[in-house]
Amino acid sequence: xxxxxxxxxxxxxxxxxxxxxxxxxxxxxxxxxxxxxxxxxxxxxxxxxxxxxxxxxxxxxxxxxxxxxxxxxxxxxxxxxxxxxxxxxxxxxxxxxxxxxxxxxxxxxxxxxxxxxxxxxxxxxxxxxxxxxxxxxxxxxxxxxxxxxxxxxxxxxxxxxxxxxxxxxxxxxxxxxxxxxxxxxxxxxxxxxxxxxxxxxxxxxxxxxxxxxxxxxxxxxxxxxxxxxxxxxxxxxxxxxxxxxxxxxxxxxxxxxxxxxxxxxxxxxxxxxxxxxxxxxxxxxxxxxxxxxxxxxxxxxxxxxxxxxxxxxxxxxxxxxxxxxxxxxxxxxxxxxxxxxxxxxxxxxxxxxxxxxxxxxxxxxxxxxxxxxxxxxxxxxxxxxxxxxxxxxxxxxx
Length: 398
Description:
Blueprint: H1 3-21, E1 29-43, E2 56-70, E3 74-87, E4 95-107, E5 112-124, E6 151-164, E7 169-183, E8 194-206, E9 211-224, E10 229-245, E11 248-263, E12 266-283, E13 287-299, E14 305-320, E15 323-336, E16 348-360, E17 365-378, E18 384-397
Antiparallel strand pairs: 1-2, 1-18, 2-3, 3-4, 4-5, 5-6, 6-7, 7-8, 8-9, 9-10, 10-11, 11-12, 12-13, 13-14, 14-15, 15-16, 16-17, 17-18
């Protein structure tokens, strides 16, 4: 079966899920919110390379549709977006990004609940036009390639089932699927189709009205057939959630993960700690922030999984009723899992910061502008790559 048919099948699968979990129209309150954004972007190193490069300007158009259906026993949110960017430089191909996400919850009985999170994402892997030392993969994803702008199709589905055992104890069964395919890959370093899937079992106990503790175990398997690579991992962790107040919440996860990597006849086993910390606060409806630190295994287009230590910061402050300051920050360290040769390892560090203003002109019109900075260091390259970017947009919402 060709990749085009595979992509169509994945899109149809996600659309079918949406039809299954959407509440009946007669019992639901439906909300539709279409919008369109138009803007410009400037970037002095769009591919984030250490070699000589030119700055580019781009024109951006983003139509979007958000749908919400709320019923007595269910809630479903669907978001579809198309982002098209036209660049001024011929060596940077114009790009279009398609994103479809779904979030659904259905209370089947007073004791049984079904949840679904899913997204289908299609974009272009921006890699250097020529194979040059120091080139990165797509940022922030750990994909690698050279001399191509391949189309990437990514599907993620995470359905789960939760049953209330007692008023304070809950059982959850979950499944996760990551599926990635590439179309039009003509690079010197091929991008490799891959799939990661696994299941998890969790037991949760409410300790009080403000806190809970969960014990979660999971297994997952990553396959890259074209690279003859299989990665299996088993994880067990404890999760503690506590609400300090109505506006300040926290989550702490700590555990261990055992990973087996098999490439051909070569096997490698590692044991590593895993963690996730989340702190969220809303201050007087004026200032809000969320800080997340976590370690994850991510599938990648290099034919292996990478371990990522990652920190994300989201901060928003309302300067005036119609004017807000927004700050986004990210740091991550990628390290390839397994016994890869030093010449092929793509271990790297990445920093990202974006600061901007959002102005609501009317209930329907808003404008925003931002400055962005990126920096990347690859372990096998003594040099670092930096980029500066500026954004300006106007958005209309019906």
